[in-house]
Amino acid sequence: MRFLHTADWHIGKKLHGYDLLEEQADAFQQILAIAKEEEVDAVVVAGDLYDRSVPSVEAIEVFNKMIVKMNLQEKFPVLAISGNHDSSIRLETGGPWFVQSNFHLNTRLDQAFKPVEMLNTQFFLLPYFEPISARLYFGNEEIRTIEQGMKEVIKEMEKQFKPDMAQVLVSHFFVAGSEKSDSETKLMVGGLDTVPLSLLESFDYVALGHLHGKNALQAENARYSGSPLKFSLSEMNQKKGVWIVDTDTQKTSFEFKEITPLRDVVQIEGGFKELIAPEYYESINREDYLHIQLTDRAVIPNMMNQLRQIYPRIIGVERLFGREERQKTSETKKEIKTLTPTELVDQFFSEVTGEELTKQQQVWINDNLAEIHQAERGQ
User: Fold this and answer.
1) Residue 246 phi/psi, 5° resolution?
2) What stretches of 107-217 adopt beta strand conformation (E)?
3) Is 44 helix (H, G, I), strand (E, B) or coil?
């Protein structure tokens, strides 16, 4: 069969305070057009439907219109899971009757072991889960990490495999070896959310969500679709779109289909006088989300107000003069930002006591941080 793989819609997300609902609706229309043009048999959404566990009323309205259009009006079966940004409890509302229109939305771990079968393919819809969920489901107190939980999850799934069908896993995790961008803000607790690629070998295709770049992982049987929009300056050069996947018991193939943003994320550079000159700003799309690099050394009175009169969607202004001094400070801050919460605690503990954390202390810290993360997600 043929299906479309997308993920990380993050409906309701803002970019430096700017509302993206119009851009998200436009991206959806392009995704729908691709689904129709490619005559897909289903659409897969691998998590993070919303940007927040409690989305705004406007975000819910936009998402509802999308699903009504895709599933009820255009009659595409939709196979979706909840991601780490979603509230599985809230998304679960309505699930029992969604399936009547071929809208399969899994939000709990136990739902992942009953595959959705379409044509020649079994879809295992595995929502984002914390280690404690696997620990409780399997009754195994030894499960403390996602890797340990995934080993048991996949063993259980493999019991349902049918030899005459292809197997597709839809999941929302960080796979070891993948590359993140600045807009992926999920808390990493000492590597608890990392899944080794080797665990996924038994699937013909793994439709992943969580990372926002399509090139975050290059594997023969696994891909991130990436987000439909650019959510940070670090994604400026990324191509956004969806994967079209064809499953076959002999071989699975996939092809990327690009979508064009309604408003792009762009970086421009120049002196103040150059940037406010008509011959310059009329040569670019002023409606894009712009990060401006100023080459001026002198102080410019009322600079931001003047720039905003010409460029309505400025997401940042950077002074290139004095960059080297700022880089030294920013590099130190960046080093701290790259540390996981567990590593930060470990570093603090070592600096204060002069000793290393014991294995038992690390387990206690990981457990408490995981519980805090789960409480913050409202689950």
Assistant:
1) -115, 120
2) 116-118, 121-125, 166-172, 174-175, 194-195, 205-209
3) strand
* CATH number given to 2-258: 3.60.21.10
Phi (first) and psi of residue 138, to 5 degrees: -90, -5
Query: What is the per-residue pLDDT across 248-291, written as a single tens digit (0 to 9) for each?
Result: 767 899 999 999 999 999 999 999 999 999 999 999 999 999 99
Tokens of 307: 């720039």
* Separation between Cα atoms, residue 89 and residue 354, nearest integer Å: 43
Measured between alpha carbons, how far is residue 142 from residues 61, 131, 152, 337 in Å?
42, 10, 11, 30
Residue reference for tokens 């905003």: 308
- Residues 6+ away with beta carbon under 8 Å from 46: 5, 6, 7, 8, 80, 81, 83, 170, 171, 172, 207, 208, 209, 210, 225
Kindly give, in sequence order, each residue whose CB lies less than 8 Å from that of residue 134, ignoring residues fewer than 6 positions away.
109, 140, 143, 146, 148, 149, 150, 152, 153
Single-letter amino acid, residue 208: L
What is the rounded CA–CA span in Å between residue 236 and residue 230?
Answer: 7
**What is the per-residue pLDDT across 151-186, written as a single tens digit (0 to 9) for each?**
999 999 999 999 999 999 999 998 976 555 555 554
Q: Show me where the domains of the chain are located.
A: 2-258, 265-321, 333-376
